[in-house]
Amino acid sequence: MSTPIDPEELADQIRDMMNGLRRAMRSGRSVGGLAPRHEAVLAWLRRKSRLTTAELARREQITPQSMGAVVAELVERGWVLKTKDPDDGRRELLALTDAGAAVIMRTDEARRADLVALLATRLTEADRELVARSLGVMKKIEIEEESS
């Protein structure tokens, strides 16, 4: 009879593995000089256009002031556009520009290439088969992105 697996311990192991995988994919290089915070904001805006600075700050778990500085840098680079909210003129909505969309697409392609290289060089074929089967199981706990 096998020993029951503690969900809390398993959750810690999964979280640690995800963080390690992220570090491995980003190790030693940024893509196009893009800081991690910039990359995160561009990725959010690609997935969910028309967010406010406050909404981005909540999603990234930083202060609105810190996010405001990140957004200002992205606006200055021409990657993000601010527009007035038609429903509430006090709010500014953020959206990717075409240039911002191109930057995040290049970043995604580079990150994918990094992951492909890691899978090809660090895992055996049997390991990759096991990962593929495990992903099917992990899909059962995947959280759908909120619709708001």
Describe this structure in words.
It is built from six helices and two strands. It is mainly α and 148 residues long. The N and C termini lie far apart (46 Å). Strands 1-2 form a two-stranded antiparallel sheet. It has a domain at 29-107: Orthogonal Bundle (Arc Repressor Mutant, subunit A).
List keywords for this structure.
single chain, 148 residues, mainly alpha, Arc Repressor Mutant, subunit A, two-stranded antiparallel ribbon, 2 strands, 62% helix
Q: Which fold name is given in CATH as the topology of the domain at 29-107?
A: Arc Repressor Mutant, subunit A
- Main beta-sheet annotation: 2 strands, antiparallel
Head-to-tail CA distance between termini: 46 Å
- Helix fraction, binned, reads 55-70%
CATH architecture of the domain at 29-107: Orthogonal Bundle
Q: How much β-strand is present in the residues?
A: 5-15%
DSSP summary, beta strand count: 2
Topology:
Elements: H1 7-26, H2 36-47, H3 53-60, H4 64-76, E1 80-85, E2 88-96, H5 98-122, H6 125-138
Antiparallel strand pairs: 1-2
Helix pairs in contact: 2-5, 3-4
Compact overview of the structure:
With about 150 residues, this protein is mainly alpha-helical. It has a domain at about 30-105: Orthogonal Bundle (Arc Repressor Mutant, subunit A).
